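Internal ticket - ligand job 265, LWBT4IAB:
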Amino acid sequence: MSAPVHTVQAGDRGPLLLCLHGIGSSSAAFAPQLAELSAHARVVAWDAPGYAMSPDPPGPLDLDGYADTAAALIRSHGASAHVLGVSWGGVIALRLAARHPGLVDSLIVADSGPGSGTDPAKADAMRARAEELAGLGPTAFAERRGPRLVSPHAPPALVRHVIDTMATAVRLPGYAYAAASMASADLRGELADLTVPALVLCGDQDRVTGIEASQALAGALHKAAYVIVKDAGHLANQEQPAHFNAWVRAHLDIVTEQPKGPSCL
Ligand SMILES: O=C(O)CC1=CCC(=O)O1
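stdout (structure tokens):
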């Protein structure tokens, strides 16, 4: 049984676009997508279980648990969705597509790779993150962690927004469950089976995922287009929203295009 989640929504027509945030964030990360893409899609952004305004799950969720919770959310909105996932959200989106192929029309995976379980050092660092949060508390944790998620040249107002979003989004145990799910995720063996169309993006100054890992992800998927977002760090959707949104729109236009039948005239 999936835990209920809080969502923010904008737009009342077009395809459903479900937005899944990264491990240190919340639905607030998608403010530029809710504002701009809602003219073309019904945009829904979640607070993951145990984050921001979503209640704590009754116990640890693994990656399947997050994917199943997202699947229940899609079902509650109708038939299927295009799923935009950033970082950890991208890993959830990929698992969602593997477990519930009928619910995912296409994937948009930003600043993400096949999971931290692919690299023991990354997995250890991810697990240690929850202890850091426990030791520092959300505010000091966000002050330390937030600036790394944008490029070194990000405007101070964006850095502040990222820190404030993180400080209000993360708490234990939700963050620890999320970090554990990311630390044990290794999707390399399942990517080739995904046939859903995908757009993979990465900030050219992403210091968390890195272009190499995101390129490898795109290369492992059957039908993926790959875009490097210039002048952006790990949170490319927030740092270069106009560029990012333009690519998402182009992707949605392509994947939702109806085949043109013969004219009736
Ligand atoms: O380290 C962070 O907080 C950035 C990050 C790693 C995985 C993710 O979703 O965000």
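Auto-summary: Residues 120-136 form the longest helix (17 residues). Residues 7-257 form a domain with the Rossmann fold fold (CATH 3.40.50.1820).
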